[in-house]
Amino acid sequence: MMRKTVLSALTLSLGLSACTTSPLGRSQLSLFDSSEIDQQGQKAFEEYRQSHKQATGRDGQYVSCIANAIIDTLPEGQGPSKWTVGVYQDDEPNAFALPGGYVVINTGLMSVAKNQDQIATVVGHEMAHVLANHANERTSTQSLTSTGLGVVQSVTGNNMLAQLLGAGAQYGVLLPYSRRQESEADLLGLDLMARAGFDPKASIALWQNMASAAGGGKPPEWASTHPNDGERSKALEGRMQSAVKLSEQAHAAGHTPSCGSINS
């Protein structure tokens, strides 16, 4: 009880000096300097890139077209100055984001995301994690949980940061995002893809495809901490009207992405 009380007090004290706000208005704890977080993200991406074969040809061009459409419609000054979105040869339907603007899409995802709008759902979701500083928040929360009073050291040095966030066995996804963060990325990602002119209604179909691909068994690793299909669909439907309006506004402004299909 004593440890919990002290830890709660420390959390409150740090929270007062390290509280940020997500793009959707949620309060966050961010103990680490963003440059440190981004540096670890870059390191993790480089290690992943060196040990995985990047997809070339149509797969890479297809996803790049979709990602660029979203990046081009981001509000000025929002997010990293440069994004790196890569497609890598792996049959697992997986995707993940790293701080600093790195997004990795596995070729196996192409069998689940059937069209450009569904791929845009995934890309938007992963970019949302970066824009919402979820890695900093998750690492900050974990540092408090893991180290208690030693958290001061984790704020002033990056040894703990590297351990918590670092490349590890899963290249920066060693700490899975929380259910709340995944839900937030769903909604923010929906806005991102709709603002680029993609069909937001495809988001519900994409997550249904993911559930079907799991066949009632264990979901893909990257989706294991995501909301269940019912919760996700309900939340997306609740935001769909505004997302459709964003998409219509994008079309009126000339944003009509046409990246073809994976089979074209």
UniProtKB/TrEMBL annotation:
What does the note under cofactor report?
A: Binds 1 zinc ion per subunit.
User: To which species is this protein native?
Assistant: Kushneria phyllosphaerae
Q: Where is the composition biased (Basic and acidic residues)?
A: 228-237
Q: Where is this region: Disordered?
A: 215-264
- Protein name per Swiss-Prot or TrEMBL: Beta-barrel assembly-enhancing protease
Q: Which leading EC class covers this enzyme? A: hydrolase
Q: Which cofactor does it need?
A: Zn(2+)
CDD domains the UniProt entry points to: M48C_Oma1_like
Membrane listed as a keyword: no
Q: Which positions fall inside the Peptidase M48 domain?
A: 80-239
Any signal peptide, and if so, which residues?
A: 1-18
Per the record, the similarity remark reads:
Belongs to the peptidase M48 family.
Q: What is its EC number?
A: 3.4.-.-
Example of a GO biological process term: proteolysis involved in protein catabolic process
Q: What InterPro entries does this protein's entry cite? A: Mito/Outer_Membr_Metalloprot, Peptidase_M48
Please provide the record's keywords in A-Z order. Hydrolase, Metal-binding, Metalloprotease, Protease, Signal, Zinc
